[in-house]
Amino acid sequence: MRCDHVLLISSSYVLHANAHLTQFGINCDEHMQTHGINKQQLLQSSSFLPLQQVRAYFRAIKELTPLPELGLVLGQGYNITSHGLAGIAAISQKNLYECLRVCSQLMTFRIPALHADLILSDSHFGLRFEEVIPLGKDFPMMIEIVCLAVLRIIDLLFPLGHKKSHLNLSYSKPDYHQLYTKNYSISTTFNSQFCEILLPLSEKNCALTQYDPVNSKTLLTDFLNEIPDVNRDNLFKRVKLLLESPEGFLADQQMISTLLAVSPRTLRRKFKEADCTFQELINIIKNKKATDYLINTDTSIADISALLEFNDSSHFTKAFKSWKGMSPSTFRAISRTQSEKFEIFSA
């Protein structure tokens, strides 16, 4: 189903995923038929598919095949052509920092379930990813896809460049966590505050051998012009930004509907068609705020519970376990024993 408010993902990510999965002996035709994906549509270079359709397709492959690490596999399988004009625009930039700037736009607009921000500090730079719509159990898979895809671009420009990078991931170690290092040689910290790709600041101005002063601008413009309007004006991002504002955190669906000039019924329908709920988006924000309190402050569990509008600490603890797979106190203890404060770049 195609609606004017359903987020879209480039069909190239399905086409190239299918080609890569054949190397693992996976026949994708049956899965495509089950999820209503037209093979001919995948061959159209400017074609897009509903995001929830692609999510369901990848989820089915992950569940029905012996590939729990599917996100790593798919991300590693993508190449520059998987990203269309955006991929070529990224490698045509002057330096690695500008390349990642384009990658942030690439991921935000071509895989709109996530929003990517370019980050910079006195020791590192990189990309930070956040959910735009609630992904639930699909979140680690989607993060793995985008992170590995970006690392592949970095490796194209600087062979073994990923060995200088570090991943911070906000979720707990999956059962296959050893594959991050064993198969993909990725330095990783789990249970972090954010999901990030980080590089040492010394690499920021590394010149790119494929720099093209003309293509770096024209291809970026062409890429931005081909973005579907629904992805450019992402409704779910707008709702999330309103909820994250100081005055918006306690807003209900009625208030958000008023601010967006849509009816509550319309807003509910839009969430339903995206296979998520308004409450799930609120939970993402509560998870983010709780993580910040637990890592960066000494605020008690009881006080965090009250700040996040839970009736009591037990309700907060139950919710946090559903988000992180562990209690708030356990998460705080783990976060304070691991060196995630970018010490990897201090040498």
Description:
It is globular, with a radius of gyration of 20 Å. It contains 18 helices and seven strands. The protein has two domains: 164 residues, no CATH class; 104 residues, Homeodomain-like (Arc Repressor Mutant, subunit A, Orthogonal Bundle), CATH 1.10.10.60. The model has no long low-confidence stretch (mean pLDDT 91). The protein is α+β, with helices and mostly antiparallel strands and 347 residues long. The strands form two sheets. The protein has a five-stranded mixed sheet with strand order 3-4-7-5-6, with helices on one face. Helices cover 52% and strands 10% of the residues.
Write a concise synopsis of the structure shown.
The protein is α+β, with helices and mostly antiparallel strands.
